[in-house]
Amino acid sequence: QYGVYLDSTSATSEPVTISGCTITNNSHTGIYITDASPIISGCTIKNHSTYGIYVYGSNASPTISGNTITS
User: Which of 24, 38, 40, 53 has the fewest CB within 10 Å, making it most exposed?
Assistant: First the structure.
């Protein structure tokens, strides 16, 4: 369903970093973020049925840069 799922329980003293990866062909979303603040950079995210990256929640504050996201 999800390539990567991050929520507030994923929190550590340092932000979770996802970089230089390829996430493809999931049945829902490539990266699903709820109330988390990961760093996502240099990834290729493609061929998902709904969203490449989905961010939800008032405490979510991800840093997203330098990615290629296509449907």
Answer: 24
Model pLDDT for residues 40-69, shown as the tens digit of each residue: 999 999 999 999 999 999 999 999 999 999
Q: What's the start-to-end Cα distance of the chain, in Å?
A: 16
6 CB neighbour count, 10 Å cutoff: 23
Q: Give the rounded distance of the alpha carbon of 40 from its chain centre.
A: 7
Q: Which residues are within 8 A (CB) of 39 and not within 5 positions of it... i.e. 6 or more apart? A: 15, 16, 17, 18, 19, 62, 63
How many whole angstroms separate alpha carbon 27 and alpha carbon 48?
Answer: 6
